[in-house]
Amino acid sequence: MEFTGISGGVLILGIGVAVVALLILMYGIGIYNRLIALKNRFKNAFAQIDVQLKRRYDLIPNLVETAKGYMKHERETLEAVIQARNTAASAGQQAAAQPGNPQAMHGLASAEGVLTGVMTRFMALMENYPDLKANTNMLALQEELTSTENKIAFARQAYNDAVMEYNTAREVFPNSIVAGFGDFPPAELFEVSAPDQREAVKVQF
Amino acid sequence: MAPAQIVVVPQSPACRPMDFFEHQARARRKTFQLVAYFLAAVVCIIAAVYLAIAGVLFYYGGWGERGAAPTLWLPEVFLVVSAGTLVIISAGTIYKTLALSGGGETVARTLGGRQVSPNTRDLAERILLNVVEEMAIASGTPVPPVYVMDNERSINAFAAGTTPQNAVIGVTRGTIETLKRDELQGVIAHEFSHILNGDMRLNIRLIAVLNGILLIAMIGYILMRTGGSSRSYFSSNKKGGNPLPLVGLLLYIIGYVGVFFGHLIKSAVSRQREFLADAAAVQFTRYPEGIAGALKKIGGLADGSRIRSERAEEASHMYFGNGLRQPFVQLLATHPPLMERIRRVDPRFDGQFPRTAPVAHTADELVDPQRLAARLSAGEHVHVAAVAGASAFARRPTAAVENVGQLDAEHVAYASALVNELPLEVASTVRDPLGAVAVVYALLLNVDDAEVRRTQLAYLADKADPRANAETLHIVAFVGQVRPEARLPLVAMTLPALKSLSPRQRQGFGDDVSFLIKADNRVSLFEYAVHRLIVTRLVDRLAHRPPRSAEPRTMTRLVPAMTALLSTLAQWGSTDDAAARQAFEESVRILPGKPGSIALLPRDKCNLRTLDMALDYLAGVGPEIKKPILQACAACIAADGKATVEEAEIMRVIADALDCPMPPLMELGETG
Hints:
The complex is a heterodimer of chains A (205) and B (672).
Chain A lengths: L7 H61 L6 H23 L4 H25 L3 H5 L1 H36 L3 H7 L24
Chain B lengths: L1 H5 L13 H40 L15 H26 L3 H7 L3 E2 L7 H17 L6 E4 L7 E4 L7 E5 H6 L2 H16 L2 H27 L18 H42 L2 H12 L38 H8 L24 H4 L6 H16 L13 H13 L2 H6 L3 H12 L5 H14 L2 H14 L4 H15 L4 H16 L6 H19 L15 H15 L3 H12 L19 H11 L4 H15 L7 H13 L15
Helix pairs in contact in B: 2-3, 2-9, 2-25, 3-8, 5-7, 5-14, 7-9, 7-10, 8-9, 9-14, 10-11, 13-26, 16-18, 16-19, 16-20, 17-18, 19-21, 19-26, 20-21, 21-26, 22-23, 22-24, 22-25, 23-25, 25-26
């Protein structure tokens, strides 16, 4: 291999190729950063849900405790409420450990669906106990619960919006190529399919 | 009497050595100086790269025609090399600037930070958020998002961002687990000093240019690895072999030498600023034991303040403590020696570091310790302080501007008391996204006119998110108990939670807020303040960033913006035209150069958008001009000789829009 000197053309070409390669690399890094940002956004959004879910899991035993004195013949329902609450709480822990993970999110969604179902039954039964309904402690707890549920629903909407934005971003070209290089699995929405949780409870003033 | 009021009251130099505006002006000049240093460094690098490449060519037998005499001066090579080097350095710089222009969040995430949920129920995190919130309200800056680096066991913290508006604060897990509230407050006060002094923007520029220089070294490294691995770089065969590895090696060396000198400059700046921030932390908390205690605990920890993240290097000079291994040369250290920092705040320190262990936090630490709160205990005292501040503001509106950037321990205690005094229901709900939305709606409901209120409530029931409507009705009675002086700070408190709304939710929220504001067909100053604090930042910024104006230096260039700003403040702050005219004229008199073409705009020409645009435009002007602008605004707001507590608070929102954070107006001992 005889070397006799580099011509100016080759040098310019080399620098040109390097600049283009650099620009492509920068573009790729830009996409990567955006995907990271979107991933963090939906994880943050889940953290907001998580805080209120825990609040709800704390409130429910208090509610049951207050009701116990009045609803002596409804032990089964009360136990079902506690049972569903415990299942949901542990599903919530798993989901919080890996927000967006399809399995964890499905687990939480179905546990939440069950909990919402038994809570509806519990609330309906309470109609039969006027004394309990008038109990100030009960009223305060119920109001707190409604407010917490609204907060969960609102935060869930933000989470689902963020997940959709992330999923779209990782699927479109050329992001999909970049997504292949990093840890960007598809994220799962958090949808609770209980009929009455979609409607906010109206509070009268 | 009137003319005497408008005169700017000079501050006694003994009391406050340099005001915020002078400080900012000086910081700008220093920045120019540093940029000049860096430009010189870039020129040196170009020269070095050229010499390296020309040298290699010379060594390999020259350029151009075979047989021509080899020479070291090759103009074409010089052109190509300078262009190439400049392209590489600017590519690296621009890339890093873009990567960091997303605000401090990018830096925080790079370092492995996790955003603390504003409604967290973890005690240590809650204490941290409360300390940050109090400091933000006290200083007049937006409450920054807070990040915790869960994998870092050492004691360290940082502030990152380009302006106070997009700043974030990050702390290590070790910090919140081993520091007591007082010590944590010292650390956070230190970081706020960086935010208030604009250290962060300079930091980001330095990081970016260093990244550009580093890129040369990286390209050199890549070239070194290409080809010639089988051959020695200094092959005995003079005419043979691939020269690229040799060029690569030289580029690698040049790049790292450049980075070394860049570090020297960066570190010198950084060390000076750390001392300033330590001193500021003492001023903000008036409790040297706090920050001294934190520094001593760093000394007592095996890990000290070391950041283990692989990316620790790039943000090294933003940290509270030295985040890297102690370098061999003190000149390269980003932070002054720990012992020296401690001795400056605690001269009696014996040099014996305590054994650092995790502390068990208690719920008492959620609120400011009695030490400071006693001076301004919650309730009446806060109210008295606020009313005194408002009346001082009414008497000498322009003097209020002297307070910009002058945070004091009393302000922090005031903010702490203010937050503690909020009705429990409001305080607990305002940190949740939905709760924050509801608090803003409730604050905007009209209290004077039942008809307007009915329209607003009907709108919420009909158009707003049903959950937001329900929560508003739930919270409205408690929001009604909030004292006037706490109303705008409460709005500021909603921001961290509101940031987690999705773009769609933000849009709906922005529409609702706009409707509530315009329901009575006029905009009050309070409503504007809400719009500016919330809507401008959350909704409008999504669509477009305000252009940074190219620093208009003369007053005449500012006339349209000043006309819009002062007219709108005058119209919205007064009930009738005569009062508005008087307020406008009084404020114009303060502007230097007596611009003749400035005239009051009619009320229908004043709207939210013009005022926003005027403020965004004026935010770009130099600090020397901002001072009279703010003084004119103050004079306009307080023109009727009276100022409500809310008006005094609105002054802080205007100041914040101009990047001039202003602490709450209170009658401090040394004023007057």
